[in-house]
Specification:
Blueprint (H helix, E strand, L loop, with lengths): L17 E3 L4 E2 H8 L5 H7 L10 H23 L1
Antiparallel strand pairs: 1-2
Helix pairs in contact: 1-3
This protein binds FE2/S2 (inorganic) cluster.
FE2/S2 (inorganic) cluster (FES) binds next to loops.
Length: about 80
Amino acid sequence: MGRGGHAPATEDPAKPMFVCICNALKDRELAAASHGARNVAEVFRRCGRRPKCGKCLPDVAELIEAAREDDQGAAKLAAE
Ligand code: FES
């Protein structure tokens, strides 16, 4: 599709996506900062930013939970 075309109906999972519009933070950057983070504020601190409007906070909390599950899965595999 060339410039000016319509966006595809489904998102390309390989394509980075903005999660925090206020700080222009993409999913990959936030996901990387989520590993080992205890809370949303810590993720923002690691990215060198501060939350503003707060609309993205539930999504960042989900990234923390996903990172926690990944880390637990990796630890479980390493222990086997
Ligand atoms: S979208 Fe993240 S603080 Fe506004």
